[in-house]
């Protein structure tokens, strides 16, 4: 099963990745949220952000590529003004100018080509509205992609090469400066890009492994089974030796100017 065919599993992701939900909510709070209006959540996962925004008073349209995630988000938000649908962000469809807030966290780095998703999200922002975008691997292109290259080197070791043929390391770099230019070309005013502090388990290796199994190495975990933690440990050791542990998480906030009265 390839990464593009991998089906994200909602329960292990929800159980192990609270830190990513907290980072998303922190970014949204920092951007300033309206008390009502429409909110789009692209790559909604198991629905924690959608739920929080609906409880705040927003009407939410959420989407995710994973059927498991969509089902979990629908169950979580069943009594709230939240609509959840299955969408592939590579072919993302959002109504232009329909949303006071458009949000996507920890999704963009899974897309080989991000221009369509970025432009579609930008166009969906209403006058006076805000786009909040967080993802990994947002470093300048000239800095290279040591994290991905190191992980691929580990996956190519004899112990793992044949077993990971159908679960390659797939992780894409979308420099924040290039994404910002795309947003500006769609008429948004882009704030300075902010780095997002990484979380390496706060010294808790078991917690870190669980988070990596559920997200970064979810496809590999499906084929490696009980050997997944050994693979993760090799990856962490190799990344530390290469000085490549930094995932280069970034947060981009962009706003569409309000309509001017004549």
Automatic annotation (TrEMBL):
The keyword Chaperone does not apply. InterPro entries: Methyltransf_11, SAM-dependent_MTases_sf. Pfam families: Methyltransf_11. Residues 41-133 form the Methyltransferase type domain. GO terms for biological process: methylation. It comes from the Bacteria. This is SAM-dependent methyltransferase. Keywords: Methyltransferase, Transferase.
């Amino acid at each position: 099963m390839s990464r593009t065919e991998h089906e994200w599993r909602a329960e292990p992701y929800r159980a192990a990745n609270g830190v990513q939900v907290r980072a998303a909510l922190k970014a949204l709070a920092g951007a300033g949220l309206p008390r009502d209006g429409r909110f789009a959540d692209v790559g909604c996962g198991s629905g924690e952000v959608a739920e929080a925004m609906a409880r705040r008073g927003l009407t939410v349209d959420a989407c995710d590529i994973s059927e498991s995630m969509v089902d979990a988000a629908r169950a979580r938000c069943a009594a709230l003004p939240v609509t959840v649908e299955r969408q592939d962000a590579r072919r993302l469809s959002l109504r232009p100018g329909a949303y006071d807030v458009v949000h996507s966290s920890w999704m963009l780095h899974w897309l080989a080509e991000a221009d369509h998703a970025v432009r579609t999200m930008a166009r969906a922002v209403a006058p006076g509205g805000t786009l909040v975008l967080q993802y990994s691997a947002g470093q300048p292109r000239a800095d290279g992609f040591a994290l991905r290259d190191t992980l691929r080197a580990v996956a190519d070791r004899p112990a793992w090469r044949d077993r990971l043929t159908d679960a390659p390391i797939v992780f894409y770099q979308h420099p924040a400066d290039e994404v910002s230019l795309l947003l500006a070309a769609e008429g948004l005013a882009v704030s300075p890009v902010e780095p997002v502090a990484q979380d390496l388990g706060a010294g808790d290796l078991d917690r870190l492994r669980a988070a990596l199994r559920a997200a970064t190495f979810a496809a590999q975990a499906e084929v490696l089974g009980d050997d997944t933690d050994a693979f993760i440990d090799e990856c962490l050791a190799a990344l530390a030796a290469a000085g490549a542990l930094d995932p280069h998480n970034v947060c981009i906030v962009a706003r569409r100017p309000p309509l001017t009265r004549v």
